[in-house]
């Protein structure tokens, strides 16, 4: 059988490289990775990022003052957001009042109200990595994919 | 040691220990990709956190566990590029990451996967073997007499022990896929 490690010297050298490289990994990275599992228990329907003007700039509507637009789609609801200089404006469809949690990866959580037309305003803008969690009177909770501005 | 597919299944069912093992196994890959892009410590922290959060998010829909190393490498790379692009808006991806880098990247990823498998196999060796091989990693010039004194093995049995330990390592199922290649 032929392979990468026909000779013991080769195998030992490759092994040494592998083991020593892993020892350089800062422990805080491993700890942060393990801590991320806390999100696994969140029981909600995931809304995937279906549109991002950063990815498709041509599709951006010319008349808006928004710096960026994104659309998250779940089977029960769609969340559209527009980024402005100082806020994140959005609308939920179908329009219905509810509550929106702005969950930042750094642990900060804010609650904003969604009005009867489905509109909401998050001011100031979220920082770092965040996701939105929508709760309405009917239907399952909806959680957007992680995103950053 | 469970394979990745089993770890993913168990993590999906909510087992923190299985998730921890996935992180332990693949954190060096995330780290290595960040190093390729010369990210600062703070940027590496951001990218690292993003990658694991995205993986938790993907855990339930991940179809092919064998594709996990590739997914982690690609996601990390994309996050690195995203971050670098934000910092230097005018620089195109090609400037950051050469246009012809793909084949080299594939070879590099294969090496990373080999290293991940080697570390899994290494952890399963007896403590004695790990101790001996560890001393042999240090440098070629470490004399058998020094090793003999350090771990209490007769000089004459170091050579045969080294061979036995490496044979055991080679026989680990985690390495089977790599033995059959090339």
Summarize the structure.
The complex is a heterodimer of chains A (149) and B (182). Chain A has 149 residues and is of the alpha+beta class.
Question: In words, what does this structure look like?
Answer:
The complex is a heterodimer of chains A (149) and B (182). Chain A is α+β, with helices and mostly antiparallel strands and 149 residues long. Chain A has helices spanning 8-23, 27-35, and strands at residues 45-52, 68-73, 78-83, 88-93, 98-104, 109-114, 119-122, 130-136, 142-144. Chain A has a 9-stranded mixed beta sheet with strand order 6-5-8-9-1-2-3-4-7, with no helix packed on it. Chain A is elongated, with a radius of gyration of 22 Å. Chain B is mainly α and 182 residues long. Chain B has 2 domains: 1-123, Orthogonal Bundle (Rna Polymerase Sigma Factor, Chain: A); 126-182. Chain B contains 10 helices and no strands. Chain B has helices at residues 4-12, 16-36, 41-58, 68-87, 93-96, 102-123, 127-138, 144-151, 155-170, 176-179. The mean pLDDT of chain B is 86.
Q: Name the beta content range of chain B.
A: under 5%
The structure class of chain B reads mainly alpha
Note the overall shape of chain B.
Answer: globular
Q: What can be said about the biggest beta sheet of chain B? A: none
What's the CATH superfamily of the largest domain in chain B, by name? RNA polymerase sigma factor, region 2, helix turn helix motif
Quick one: overall form of chain A? elongated
Could you report the average pLDDT of chain B, rounded to the nearest whole number? 86
* Whole-number tally of structural domains of chain B: 2
Largest sheet of chain A: 9 strands, mixed
The share of residues in helices of chain A is: 10-25%
Summary keywords:
heterodimer, A: 149 residues, alpha+beta, 9-stranded mixed sheet, 9 strands, 17% helix, B: 182 residues, mainly alpha, Rna Polymerase Sigma Factor, Chain: A, 2 domains, 10 helices
């Amino acid at each position: 059988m032929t392979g990468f490690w026909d000779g013991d010297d080769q195998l030992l050298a490759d092994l040494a490289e592998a083991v020593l490289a892993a020892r350089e990994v800062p422990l805080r990275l491993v700890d942060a990775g393990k801590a991320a599992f806390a999100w696994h228990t969140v029981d909600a329907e995931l809304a995937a990022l279906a549109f991002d003007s950063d990815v498709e700039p041509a599709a951006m509507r010319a008349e808006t003052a928004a710096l960026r637009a994104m659309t998250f789609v779940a089977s029960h609801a769609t969340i559209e957001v527009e980024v402005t200089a100082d806020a994140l404006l959005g609308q939920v469809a179908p329009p219905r009042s509810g509550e929106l949690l702005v969950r930042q990866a750094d642990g900060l959580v804010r609650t904003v109200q969604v009005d009867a037309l489905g509109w909401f305003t998050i001011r100031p803008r979220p920082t770092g990595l965040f996701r939105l969690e929508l709760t309405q009177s009917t239907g399952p909770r909806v959680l957007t994919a992680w995103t950053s501005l | 040691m469970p394979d990745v597919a089993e770890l993913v299944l168990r993590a999906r069912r909510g087992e923190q220990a299985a998730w921890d093992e996935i992180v332990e196994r693949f954190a060096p890959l995330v780290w290595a990709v960040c190093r390729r892009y010369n990210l600062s410590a703070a940027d590496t922290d951001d990218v690292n956190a993003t990658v694991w959060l995205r993986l938790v998010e993907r855990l339930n829909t991940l179809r092919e566990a064998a594709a996990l190393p590739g997914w982690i490498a690609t996601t990390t790379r994309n996050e690195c590029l995203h971050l670098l692009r934000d910092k230097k808006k005018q620089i195109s991806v090609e400037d950051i990451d050469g246009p012809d880098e793909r084949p080299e990247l594939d070879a590099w990823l294969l090496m990373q996967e080999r290293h991940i498998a080697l570390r899994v196999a290494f952890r399963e060796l007896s403590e004695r073997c790990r101790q001996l091989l560890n001393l042999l990693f240090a440098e070629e010039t470490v004399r058998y007499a020094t090793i003999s004194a350090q771990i209490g093995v007769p000089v004459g049995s170091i050579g045969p022990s080294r061979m036995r330990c490496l044979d055991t390592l080679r026989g680990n199922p985690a390495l089977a896929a790599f033995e059959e290649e090339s």
